[in-house]
Amino acid sequence: MQITLSSQQSRILESLSQQGKYTSIEDAIDTALVLLADEIIQQNPDATPDYLAWVEQTRLKIDAGLQAAEQGNVLAADDVIAQLRHKVNAAKAASA
Questions:
Q1: In a domain, 2, yes or no
Q2: Which CA distances in Å does 48 have to 3, 38, 39, 59?
């Protein structure tokens, strides 16, 4: 998976990294995913094992995406957001 951040998202991550709270942009992204995981776990504690597996898969995909981005292989942010929205909507429909 390749992710292209908007300029606003990049500025936020760079700012967090420069402030010293996070050692890198990757660290800030990891923290954001953990916070998202916590929110989902609070909403549905029974989904914890599946969610933890998803978090690990997502971390691996982020690592792969960062490597691809370093090589210049990126997607447009609008395409990524559309894909993510589609996945979220599909997940919501499946859980209803």
A1: no
A2: 25, 9, 11, 16
Contact between 33 and 59 (Cβ < 8 Å): yes
59 and 44 in contact (C-beta within 8 Å)?
no
Alpha helices in the chain (DSSP H): 7-18, 25-43, 48-70, 77-95
pLDDT tens-digit map of 29-88: 888 888 887 787 777 766 667 777 887 888 888 888 888 888 888 778 888 888 889 999
Q: How many domains does the chain have?
A: 1
Which SS3 state, helix, strand or coil, does residue 4 take? coil
- Rounded CA separation 45/32 (Å): 19
Q: Which domain holds residue 17?
A: 7-95
Position 20 in a domain: yes
